[in-house]
Amino acid sequence: MENYDQILFAPSDVAMMLATRLKDIRKRKKITQRRLAARSNVSYASLCRFEQTGLISLESFIKLSMELGVVDEIKDLFARPVYTNIDEVINDRH
User: Fold this and answer.
1) Rg of the chain in Å (alpha carbons)
2) What is the model's pTM?
3) Distances 59 to 18, 27, 53, 73 between C-alpha atoms, Å
4) CA torsion angle for 75, 59, 45, 65 (degrees, to 10)?
5) Three-state DSSP string of 9-40
6) Which residue in 54, 16, 73, 61 sits closest to 36, CA to CA?
7) Exposure winner among 35, 40, 54, 73, fewest CB in 10 A?
């Protein structure tokens, strides 16, 4: 059976959710876009585009996350397997 929660979101929707979350963290820490860009070695233009559109390279996303202190959440992203059926559980043991 498919996970219908995943069907409700387009990739661009998920990207914007991530952008919004990082933007909220940046604002909560009272860091300006220019300061975050400089400290993370991500261009100011890339950071602005990311916060507006959700578009950014994975490497730049990781750099921003590191500077904001949330990189552990990314490192743990696929640490635990998610099974959708018993066959996946069985296949994982081999």
Assistant:
1) 17
2) 0.81
3) 14, 21, 17, 15
4) 20
5) CCHHHHHHHHHHHHHHHHHHCCCCHHHHHHHH
6) 61
7) 73
Asked if 17 contacts 25 with a C-beta cutoff of 8 angstroms, the reply is no
| DSSP assigned state of 89 | H
Q: Determine the Cα–Cα distance for residues 34 and 85; give it in Å rounded to an integer.
A: 46
64 is written with which tokens?
A: 């921003």
Domain locations in the chain as residue ranges: 9-92
d(CA 50, CA 12): 11
Q: Looking at the domain that runs over 9-92, which CATH code has it been given?
A: 1.10.260.40
pLDDT digits (tens, 9 = 90+) for 19-77: 999 999 999 999 999 999 999 999 999 999 999 999 999 999 999 999 999 999 999 88
What's the pLDDT band for 5 if we cut at 50, 70, 90?
Answer: low
